[in-house]
Amino acid sequence: MATTVLRVRLVGGDRMDITYDEPDISDEDQLLEHVVSTLARDSGALRTEHGGRLVVLYGRGVAAIEVAPRGAVV
Known about the structure:
CATH class: Mainly Beta
Radius of gyration: 12 Å
Number of helices: 1
Largest sheet: 3 strands, antiparallel
Structural class: alpha+beta
Strand content: over 45%
CATH topology: SH3 type barrels
CATH architecture: Roll
C-alpha cells in the first residue's frame, strides 16, 4: 500500500496538507498518477485524511497539488 502527503491549494486560495493512501497501489509514482488522473475528471473525488478526519477532495475545487520533495530544495 502506497501512502503520500500532499499539499493541496484550493481554488479559494486556502492550503491544506492531506494524507492519501491506496491499498491496490504499491509505488508512490503510480499513486501520484492516480491522484492526478482522478482529480482531472469532471466527477473526480478522493477520500483523504486531514488531522485524523476524513476529507473528500473534489477535483473542481483544487487549483494545485504539491508533493513533498525527495531531496534538498534549492
